[in-house]
């Protein structure tokens, strides 16, 4: 009995020793694998698998590396072939979340936690990687959110990647197209973001143009805040209305407060009421004056005067029919 127990402990001790040795070597192999992925050296990665064996290679690929996974590294390397190899041959989880560094347009880097490989590929704008991830089973993570609440579709909209937006909507089941997707597309005034917003509205993937956020802000109000006249025109074409937020603030008040002359003029043409007051009794003239936008205050007062004396012009329907205007 004692001999059998001794043998059992010997086996256990041997297994523990082997496991400890593997753990000690793990950082070395992690660093090597990361280097090979950065070099896009698929041949050497295959050789590493032959050296380690399928089981240990699977453990290596599945181990966390700098708060993310090797699938994230494959995506960041831009290699769809390496990505497919890790998933198909090394059984890597294509939906596993991690923390990644994302470069900002204005400079600098921000860490985004709980990002899926699909989210990273969408943020990068690499349509081939997006397709590869979806075909490898990553579509199951389509509605997963990062720590800041962003989905893969939302970040594609925010980044202005219309081809990716179309692919995700047409090829992933149950993808959520919501207020935040259209808001993300309207957050920037350039043509590529406009095309994303236009696609979402035109194809009726999102038609709640008067939906409000928790503060009562509509998409029209957000466009007014950013001076996005092309966005205003697009939303109005699809039925957006000048709805006040929870504090009674209307889109024209928002545009006036932020000094967007062209947006104010456009909203006046549309018919947003210059005499409307918020819950504190303030109108658009007040908000323009308070923030030093005297030109806008004069425009608003002139419009009020002309309306009072019946000198208003009939607004031309053409201002809502034109497409993207590079001057706005």
UniProtKB/TrEMBL annotation:
UniProt keyword Repeat, yes or no: yes
ANK repeats: 148-180, 247-279
Superkingdom: Eukaryota
Family matches, as InterPro entries: Ankyrin_rpt, Ankyrin_rpt-contain_sf
SUPFAM superfamilies for the chain: Ankyrin repeat
Keywords: ANK repeat, Repeat
Name under which the protein is recorded: Protein fem-1 homolog CG6966
């Amino acid at each position: 009995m004692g001999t059998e127990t001794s043998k059992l402990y010997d086996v256990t001790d041997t297994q523990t020793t082997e496991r400890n040795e593997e753990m000690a070597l793990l950082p070395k192999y992690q660093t090597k694998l990361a280097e090979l992925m950065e070099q896009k050296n698929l041949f050497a990665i295959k050789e590493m698998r032959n050296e380690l064996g399928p089981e240990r290679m699977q453990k290596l690929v599945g181990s966390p590396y700098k708060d993310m996974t090797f699938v994230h590294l494959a995506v960041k390397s831009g290699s769809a072939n390496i990505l497919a190899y890790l998933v198909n041959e090394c059984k890597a989880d294509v939906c596993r979340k991690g923390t990644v560094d994302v470069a900002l347009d204005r400079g600098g880097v921000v860490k985004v936690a709980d990002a899926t490989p699909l989210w990273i590929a969408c943020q990068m704008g690499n349509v081939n990687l997006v397709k590869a991830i979806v075909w490898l089973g990553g579509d199951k993570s389509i509605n997963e959110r990062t720590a800041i609440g962003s989905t893969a579709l939302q970040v594609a909209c925010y980044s202005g990647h219309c081809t990716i937006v179309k692919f995700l909507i047409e090829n992933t089941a149950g993808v959520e197209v919501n207020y935040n997707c259209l808001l993300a597309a309207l957050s920037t005034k350039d043509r590529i973001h406009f095309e994303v917003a236009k696609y979402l509205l035109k194809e009726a993937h999102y038609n709640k143009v008067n939906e409000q956020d928790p503060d009562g802000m509509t998409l029209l109000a957000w466009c007014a805040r950013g001076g996005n006249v092309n966005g205003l025109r697009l939303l109005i074409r699809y039925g957006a209305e000048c709805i006040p937020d929870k504090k009674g603030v209307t889109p024209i008040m928002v545009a006036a407060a932020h000094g967007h002359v062209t947006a104010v003029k456009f909203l006046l043409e549309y018919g947003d009421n210059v005499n409307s007051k918020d819950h504190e009794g303030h109108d658009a003239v007040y908000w323009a004056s308070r923030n030093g936008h005297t030109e806008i205050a004069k425009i608003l007062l002139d419009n009020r005067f002309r309306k009072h004396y019946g000198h208003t012009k009939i607004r031309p329907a053409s201002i809502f029919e034109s497409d993207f205007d590079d001057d706005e």
